[in-house]
Amino acid sequence: MPYEAIYVVLGPGPVVLTCPACNTRVTTYTRTAPNPMTHCLAACLCILGCWLCCCLPYFCVPPIVRHYCPRCGAYLGSCS
Ligand SMILES: [Zn+2]
Fold this sequence. Notes:
binds zinc ion, 5 strands, 3-stranded antiparallel sheet, LITAF domain-containing protein
């Protein structure tokens, strides 16, 4: 029986894989979400009084790319 890895290394772009939820070969669709680190950094800068710099992490820290199944909407993995 051939073994097929369900979880592959996900890149920043759409990936073709077999969705473990609906067991269908799909091309993932991606959504970007702010990196949780970004909020921490921004909060730290705010606390330190750097009001003007607190939005800088949103430009410097790359967002997390989340992959979803276009058929059933299952979350398949992320790439930061
Ligand atoms: Zn699916």
